[in-house]
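USER:
I wish I could look at a protein chain and see how it folds. I am handing you a single protein, as its sequence and its fold in token form. As I understand it, each token names a local backbone shape. I hope you can help me see how the letters and the tokens relate. The protein I mean follows directly.
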Amino acid sequence: MNFSMITLNEYSCSLLVTWLIMPLLGLLSGWVMTLITCRLPALVEQEETGVRCIKTPFILSGSQCCLCHHPLTWSDCLPLFSYLRLGGKCRYCHERISWRYPVQEAGCLLFAVFCGLFQGDNLSLALALYTFGWFAFALSEIDSRTFLLPDVLTLPLLWLGLIFNATTNMTDLVDAIWGAVLGYTLLWSLFWAMFFATKKKGMGYGDFKLLAATGAWFGWQCLPAVLFVASTSGLLYALAGYLLFRKKSAVLPFGPFLALGGTVYFIDFLTH
């Protein structure tokens, strides 16, 4: 009887995590992601150029239509539901809302459900996997459009990895610290080697910090596998672009491929 009750409680907890906690987290964090990926690049550009285009902190300023700039109410900003209810158009100017917003919100929702199904019996690991994936998704989206990996996202990801490993021992903390150090140093060294050889900058400092953050989560042992996945997927992407569209891209953002490598490594890590 006691064993059955324990089993039933564990099963109920797994269902709660999978079908309630994680989907709600996915919807709410998906809305936050659309806010950050839309406003953060403009804020970074404002700091670099000194031209003040955002007068209040980007999280605190009210939402508005990107086309007609009409202020939006809370009912216009409900993740996914508002987009579907309005038929994908702004309530005020009736122009099409960018597909990026529902795709990001739906992506966060689906990934949250995946994390719940994958680690429904362990809420801390489900949240950890989702947290890393959320940062990876947000950074990939920003980097693919603007070639920016903002410190306001890469550095918290690094510290969250160290804190998580200090409290759960998923990865040995010493290995995690060395992962952060070596992750940054490897790409920093490669950057300067390429610069001295070609006089061109092959990547940005945000890539160094993203790999350092990945090392902080999974330890220095993950770095070869993450770099292999990132480099291979980047080459395949460039090759597919050339073969299908004859697209010769001189500049390719490396952040999305590093993020992919880290996420794939995390999922593989949890299966062993």
Summary: Confidence is low (pLDDT under 50) at residues 1-8, 51-57. The chain has two domains: 1-120, 122-272.
